[in-house]
């Protein structure tokens, strides 16, 4: 499943360049095709480079005509399979080795000798200059294709040339990174490729312990504050000289009766 948020990009090595809209399926619904198109924004394709020359265009046209004539297979706007061009150049390489072997009066039954004559040489093929190193490996040219999010069509944005080992951008073209990112995603995801760099727990153990300890400290500080305020108020009340003890308070009614009784005693004394 391809990423559509731009956090990851995928690179597909494809031997052919047969479709400029690989996300599209004629029998699928518009909704399904649009979802596929969105996903393909995160996909880059690497394929064998197709030369832009008159010779190759003529060769491609001839292949398409033969395909229609002998096999009933119409190509349409699709490019000729790169296996066809590779086979064409392989035949040229073999014929060069055979001619040299015969010119030297050597036997074609010596397969090792014929093969060695195909090594460490360069010749002109339908795909351009074909170079074989001293070990018999070909220096292959590749193209990097990216989908234009506006048109939904894959286009060549850069080429890699095997002989010079150079990666050359196509003028006016650039990679459209998914998720409207201005550059490529990180080489390594945040949690690693297998998620091992991130904990499976919602809250790690150290977070839980720290939270509990912090809560205990906060509660202790609040309780200490209230206890301190309580004793502070008690101390302030105890230092007040106007404070009257409860037993020193005399009821008002009793006081009236006592005063009345005193007045009566005083009257009897006078009388």
TrEMBL record:
Signal peptide: none annotated. One of its GO terms (molecular function) is peptide receptor activity. It is found in: Membrane. InterPro entries: ANF_lig-bd_rcpt, ANPR/GUC, Cyclic_nucleotide_synthase, Peripla_BP_I. Residues 28-149 form the Receptor ligand binding region domain. One of its GO terms (cellular component) is plasma membrane. The keyword Translocase does not apply. This is Receptor-type guanylate cyclase gcy-28. It comes from Trichonephila clavata (Joro spider).
